[in-house]
Specification:
2 copies of one chain form a homodimer. With 532 residues, chain A is α/β, with parallel strands linked by helices. In chain A, 33% of the residues lie in helices and 19% in strands. Chain A is built from 17 helices and 17 strands. In chain A, the strands form 3 sheets. Chain A has an 8-stranded parallel β-sheet. In chain A, strands 1, 2, 3, 4, 5, 6 and 7 form a 7-stranded antiparallel β-sheet that branches. A two-stranded antiparallel ribbon of chain A has the order 11-12. In chain A, a hairpin with a 2-residue loop joins strand 4 and strand 5. In chain A, helix 1 packs parallel to helix 2, helix 3 packs parallel to helix 5 and helix 7 packs across helix 10. The two termini of chain A are 39 Å apart. At the A-B interface, helix 3 of A face helix 3 and helix 15 of B. Chain A: One of its GO terms (biological process) is ganglioside catabolic process.
Chain lengths: 532, 510
């Protein structure tokens, strides 16, 4: 079930898909295992139905709460028409719009929320019914349907008789892009959102600013990007760019989670905001270098409150990522004002207390803004007394280490998001997707209650060596391996060798859809990548 | 401040001053010198003028008048000594050129059109834009020539099929780094995409798909012609006797039937060296290959032959007895390779073989080139010594297996290779004809080829073109390579970043 903080459309149910039955050829070899990530419950038969692009209609059921004019589904029908019939260039409709029919349907009752499997797809002769609690569930179901359709050697389209009940294992399935170490043009972000929807990812974690550059064009503090971006005009995200990303994501059921990481990782902030960063000292004189955000000045908190207020109104999601990782204490230690502040606050020489103090203030700002904070694990490691609704983001260490951390954090009653095993920017030779696939996010010592506190996982594509030139082939299909781990049932997807041909298949589907997803091993796709 | 060091790979001898001349796209002319052996109608240079005009003025679209510019014309005059316009570049082709840029004028002198093409590439890299988009070039003198005559890139089109347009794009990028050999590892175990005129069943049955995953004769001609215009040789490889599984699908009785005990197991091994029909087939195929590919070299492979199938086969064992090879299967492999090399000698072609052939068999024809692919620096240095001591010419690929990706700036390893750092005489060092960057295809196809290749291959390109002393510092090379990478991106090549940073013009594709 998709539930997101992005939406307040109420519950939508019962949208239906229709297509005309022409002939039945019970020869289909295609199986529902072609769907990636693997649906939770499915059955299919060898009975297959041909699909005619010119007689294929999307429609809303009579009982459906969403009807024509529903922005999310109307747009999805147009997208999925092209995805279902990839090389159909019929002159009647290239947009698919005319295929959104208004045919009468068998009525479906509004599904009760207590129903075990709310998202249901049923394909039978001449007809498919797709039922979901929300439009987001319906979008997931359309993706599944599009992957069920296949072509024979003559290019004819078919779908097999199929029953699917599906829902994600974890509610948070994210991808992090880092637009500070390299600027990623908006069109490349949009293309990534397209591909995310194909793997049923639902959170775009936008690590939008960091040390190297500040490309976010703030309304309140325009100097931040004017002076802190790689280029003040060509290497920034305007408010309109940000809205475009959020809107593109929304239509695909993807949340946009902004990260404004502080007090470390803020070098670029200092260029456009004086007195924000701590001046480092060499002996008794400023060295000219700057360290983390200065936690000793009241102006810092005023600035952060104003910035975060803007961020929380620009980004509709109820979460804000506040960073808090890798704070280097040496500059703070060198600064006499910071040391004086430490004395005044009674922190002694324990700078983790200073960091905790800073983060507590920042988290309180977001609480006041009615947002939930996510922070990197460092914050918990230093300071166990953060608000209970804060989500902790694990990024460090080997399996043994992050398992221990999962135990510790959930024991403290905190919600946790796991990124450590999916640092996908770390490339290596060979099939490293197998490592991403075989992660067991709940394999740590803890009670059933503790396990429920793991809200999901995230694939991180840090930007040291990545920009629009190589982002797509580094991300796909390696991220798709994590996508199945986060969506599908672990028992049904425990064999990495069984997953291999399915992922190869899915990768060819991505290529067919124009995504430069790299190969997993020797072989070929029926339709190779045609770009350059 | 702009400097001449912006040219990649670094020219051998250069001077430049801070005096700069504005260039106006509407008053910029290519022309042939009166004394030039090549004149208008020279296919290679006429085409190069058109290409380089767009590369020199990347965002000039032909309409509108440029601001901030005087309308002084700029002429670039090309003089070449030989009218080799309709020929193919070959192993002895001179790539030397001299480029002199002064007020309103540049002179580019070369022995051959191939040298002139290299000089045009250099000139295009000298031109830069200021913040307002105006074009400039500084006063410059360059004498340039390559350190090694063979600077290759291997693409593997058997493990994955690489569509022709992706090969052509790679040739474009190769010219930007002054690579001059496209080593086309066209067939191998997984697939046989080369559509043979003589043996059409090889691709009909051995390609991943007989229609969509093949290189037709016209595709091959297109690749050769695209390469020629850029001064790039196309070196075809038909690797045998190993790495031939896909061949067996379209050519029965070619591969050795493996035995399990006294009965055939159904599996097949390397090419069967015991049958006369094998040599007839190879002679016919190589005759076709040598007429389709104009280069004087043919790569015959010869690597990684697994003896277990030969050992299992009673006919092969009987042949061993008959030939007096005893149980030494390296002798059988040597016998096979000797026959294949002789075929190419008869066809008037020079053979290149992987190092395995020399390791097994030191008595191969002296003009054969040995291709080193194995081992760590210590190992390939020893091999370089051994081979050149035997008087053999050598091509070094071992340090540039660029398909082996890792996290971080591995281009530094490719840059710091010292191809002549092995124990041997000056005569021995001369036998190293160059190096090759290998992009094996296990994990590579058109989706990721370009960012994996560039700019990492460009690091090797400078090692193979430029003077080693002037390019000994990898840290000095770093900002220059970052700069060059941005030029590649500007030219539409998806060259990946080396580290945190940005290009003025980021990649605009998706």
């Amino acid at each position: 079930m998709e539930t997101t903080g992005l939406v307040s459309f109420g519950r939508y149910t019962c949208s239906h898909l229709y297509f005309l039955l022409l002939i039945v050829l019970p020869l289909g070899q295609h199986t529902v295992e072609g769907v990636w990530p693997l649906p939770q419950i499915f059955t299919s038969s060898i009975e297959r139905y041909p699909l005619n692009p010119q007689a294929f209609y999307f429609g809303y059921g009579r009982q459906s709460a969403a009807q024509f004019g529903c922005s999310v589904l109307d747009a999805a029908f147009i997208r999925y028409y092209s995805l279902i019939f990839p090389d159909y260039t019929g002159k009647h409709s290239t947009t698919g719009k005319s295929h959104i029919g208004k045919k009468q349907s068998v009525g479906f009752d509004v599904l009760s929320p207590s129903l075990l499997f709310p998202d249901n797809l049923s394909v039978s002769a001449g007809k498919a019914s797709l039922n979901a609690e929300t439009v987001w569930g319906a979008v997931r179901g359309l993706e599944t349907f599009s992957q069920l359709v296949y072509q024979d050697d003559f290019g004819s389209y078919f779908v097999n008789q199929t029953e699917i009940d599906d829902f994600p294992r974890f509610p948070f399935r994210g991808i992090l892009l880092d637009t500070s170490r390299h600027f990623i043009p908006v069109h490349a972000i949009l293309k990534t959102l397209d591909a995310m929807a194909y793997s049923k990812f639902n959170v775009f974690h936008w690590h939008i600013v960091d040390d190297p550059s500040f490309p976010y064009q703030s309304q309140t503090f325009p100097d931040l990007s004017r002076k802190g971006a790689f280029h003040p005009m060509t290497h920034i995200y305007t408010q309109s760019d940000v809205r475009r990303v959020i809107s593109h994501a929304r239509l695909r059921g993807i949340r946009v989670l902004p990260e404004f990481d502080s007090p470390g990782h803020t070098k670029s902030w200092g260029k456009g905001q004086s007195d924000l960063l701590t001046p480092c000292y060499s002996g008794s004189t400023p060295s000219g270098a700057f360290g983390p955000v200065n936690p000793a000045l009241p102006s810092t908190y005023q600035f952060m409150a104003t910035l975060l207020k803007e961020v929380s109104s620009v980004f509709p999601d109820s979460y804000i990522h506040l960073g808090g990782d890798e704070v280097n204490f040496s500059c703070w230690k060198s600064n006499p004002d910071v040391r004086a502040f430490m004395q005044k606050m009674g922190f002694g020489v324990d700078f983790t207390k200073l960091e905790a103090f800073y983060m507590e203030n920042i988290v309180n700002i977001t609480t006041f803004l009615n947002k939930t904070a996510i922070v990197w694990q460092d914050v918990f490691d230093y300071h166990e007394l953060i608000p209970k609704d804060t989500v902790l983001h694990i990024w460090k260490g080997s399996p043994a280490n992050y398992r221990k951390e999962l135990s510790r954090m959930t024991k403290a009653g905190m919600r946790v998001l796991l990124a450590a095993p999916w640092y996908i920017n770390h490339i290596s030779y060979g099939q490293d997707w197998r490592n991403y696939y075989t992660v067991q996010p709940l394999n740590f010592s803890g009670t059933a209650e503790q396990k429920k506190l793991v809200i999901g996982g995230e694939v991180c594509m840090w930007g040291e060596y990545v920009d629009a030139t190589n982002l797509t082939p580094r991300l796909w299909p390696r991220a798709s391996a994590a996508a199945e781990r986060l969506w599908s049932d672990e028992k049904q997807t425990s064999s990495v060798d069984k997953a291999f041909p399915r992922l190869q298949d899915f990768r060819c589907k991505l290529v067919r859809r124009g995504i430069r997803a790299e190969p997993l091993y020797v072989g070929h796709c029926k339709h190779e990548y045609q770009g350059v």
